Amino acid sequence: MGVPVLIMGASGSGKSASLRNFEPAEVGVFNVASKPLPFKKRLNVANHATYQMITAGLKKNSLRCYVIDDSQYLMAFDLFDRAKEMGYQKFTDCALNFYNLLTVIREQTSDDTIVYLLHHTERDDTGHIKAKTSGKMLDNQLTLEGLFSIVLLAETDGNGYSFVTQSDGFTTAKSPIGMFPTEMDNNLKAVDTAIREYWSLDIKEEDNAKI
Question: Is residue 111 part of a domain?
């Protein structure tokens, strides 16, 4: 049973940059929007990642850490492809496709596999910060953060970058008690280490397999 983790934040808040401390053999990156990573190190990246590509890679499970970069575009591109369709069914299908991806992560990867979804944020009508979806119709079908035990919020003050690990009442950030400090450096490798230590997840030697 793999572990999905949601890393949410505005564009430019340091989500992708948080991968900088991983070594290539440690992580596979599914790059949905195919944007270059914001650092020089070359990681194991699959560009133009679709649901089908991601699902196939996760089922192969040759690594124990994966990242889906710009995961909100999976929903957006799904709806763009069906933009001319009338009715509400496409919103239900869009929510179901995302839910099915999380089901693959939980049920078809090993217990020591962690999959990080890097996801944009938006403010709702009350001013609360939440994970971005493709509109209220989709929100009616899927409460995204409710499907994760760990939701971290990437933030920047213009000088540095950090992860917020608990809600202040105006965000949907959350994490198990004592797993992280309330705020930490945006270092996804350190996050990965903390999760594995907290839940005693075995770390297996990687085989440099492609995703």
Answer: yes
Is 67 a member of any domain? yes
| pTM, entire model | 0.92
Kindly indicate the confidence band of residue 138, based on its pLDDT and cuts at 50, 70 and 90: low
Asked if the structure places residue 43 within a domain, the reply is yes
Taking residues 60-69, what's their average pLDDT? 96
**Domains: count for the chain:** 1
Q: What are phi and psi of 4, to 5 degrees?
A: -85, 140
Whether residue 11 lies inside any domain: the answer is yes
Which DSSP helix (H) or strand (E) runs through 77?
A: helix 72-81
